[in-house]
Design goal:
- This protein is an alpha/beta fold.
- It has a single domain (5-282), classed as Spore Coat Polysaccharide Biosynthesis Protein SpsA, Chain A, CATH 3.90.550.
- It is built from 9 helices and 13 strands.
- Strands 8-11-9-10-12 form a 5-stranded mixed beta barrel.
- Helix 7 packs across helix 8 (227-236).
- The chain starts with a strand and ends with a helix.
- The model has no long low-confidence stretch (mean pLDDT 92).
Length: 284
C-alpha cells in the first residue's frame, strides 16, 4: 500500500509574515494567483494523496473554508456566466478528503504532527510544511513517495543544500550518498557547526512508528516536542533516507521567498509579456 494521507501542520502564528498575516492566515497569502496552501495541497494530490489532515489552530478556520463548497458564490458566478470559476470551487472541494484537527497549544512541530495521528491511514504518512513551496515538476512529494515505496520501513525526508552560514537556521543531516539519495545517520536541529551542507526541508514520508516515538520522547529544545528527535529515532532503527527534490524550493514563510515564488508562478503563466513589464519596472 502506498501513501495516501498527508499531515499539514498549519497552526502557527506566521510572525515572519507580519503585518500581512495579522488577520489572514499566512497559508492563505497569495502566490501569484492562488494561496500557498492550495499549491501545497495540489502537490499532494499530484503525488496520489487522497486524505488531507490540516492541523490548525485558533484563527485558522479560513483554511478549511477555502476548500469548502460555497453555494451562494457558485450561484452568483454561474448567473454571471463565470462557470469556469464556479466549477473550480466544486473541483477544489472534491479533490480529496479534508480533515481538520486543532492543536490547542503550541508545543512544537513534533506535537503538531502527533495531533494528526488519529486521522492518519496506512503504515506510512506524509508530512508537508506549508512554508516550503516546490514549484515545478515532478512534484517533490512524488519523488519522496517513490523512494519510500522502494524502502517502506525507512523514513524519507526532503533535503536542501545550504551554505555554511545558513546551517544554523535549519535541521541538518549527515550520511552517505548512494544511488542518488542520502542514507542518513545523524540529524541535528539548528547546529552551531553543521555535520554537512544538507538541510531538512518540509517534506517527509514516515512510517507511522514516528507517532509512538513522538508520544514517548518528551520535550526537547525550547521545551517543545521536536520532530527532529523522532527522526533520529527512525534513523537509529529501520533507517532514514534523504533526497533533494528536482523542483526548485521557495520559503513562503518570509516576504522575500513569497515574492520570489509569486514571480516564478507569474513568469510561468504570463510568459514574455510579464518579463517585459518586469524589465520596464526595473528601469523606472
Amino acid at each position: 500500500m502506498s501513501v495516501n494521507t498527508v499531515i499539514i501542520p498549519a497552526a502557527g502564528w506566521g510572525t515572519r509574515m507580519l503585518p500581512a498575516s495579522n488577520a489572514v492566515p499566512k497559508e492563505l497569502l497569495p502566490v501569484y494567483d492562488r494561496p500557498s496552501i492550495e499549491l501545497v495541497i495540489a502537490e499532494a494530490i499530484e503525488a496520489g494523496i487522497t486524505r488531507i489532515v490540516l492541523v490548525s489552530g485558533r484563527g485558522k478556520s479560513g483554511l478549511m473554508d477555502h476548500f469548502d463548497r460555497h453555494p451562494q458564490l457558485e450561484a452568483l458566478l454561474r448567473a454571471s456566466g463565470k462557470d469556469n470559476a464556479a466549477d473550480a470551487i466544486v473541483r477544489r472541494a472534491g479533490q480529496a478528503e479534508m480533515i481538520e484537527v486543532r492543536q490547542g497549544e503550541a508545543k512544537g512541530l513534533g506535537h503538531a504532527v502527533l495531533c494528526g495521528a488519529a486521522a492518519a491511514d496506512g503504515d506510512r504518512v506524509a508530512v508537508m510544511l506549508p512554508d516550503d513551496l516546490y514549484i515545478g515538476s515532478p512534484a517533490a512529494l512524488s519523488e519522496l513517495i517513490a523512494l519510500s515505496d522502494a524502502n517502506p520501513k525507512a523514513g524519507v525526508i526532503g533535503l536542501l543544500r545550504v551554505p555554511p552560514e545558513d546551517s544554523s537556521k535549519y535541521g541538518m543531516v549527515s550520511g552517505e550518498t548512494r544511488d542518488g539519495h542520502t542514507v542518513i545517520d545523524r540529524l541535528v536541529e539548528k547546529p552551531a557547526v553543521a555535520p554537512s551542507d544538507l538541510a531538512i526541508t518540509g517534506r517527509y514520508v514516515l512510517p507511522t512508528r514516528v507517532f509512538e516515538l513522538l508520544a514517548n520522547q518528551g520535550a526537547g529544545a525550547l521545551g517543545e516536542i521536536q520532530l527532529t528527535d523522532a527522526l533520529q529515532g527512525l534513523a537509529d532503527g529501520d533507517g532514514m533516507l534523504g533526497i533533494v527534490p528536482s523542483a526548485p524550493r521557495y520559503d513562503a514563510g518570509n516576504h522575500e521567498g513569497l515574492l520570489l515564488a509569486s514571480l516564478r508562478r507569474g513568469l510561468d503563466a504570463g510568459g514574455e509579456g510579464l518579463r517585459q513589464k518586469l524589465r520596464a519596472e526595473l528601469e523606472r
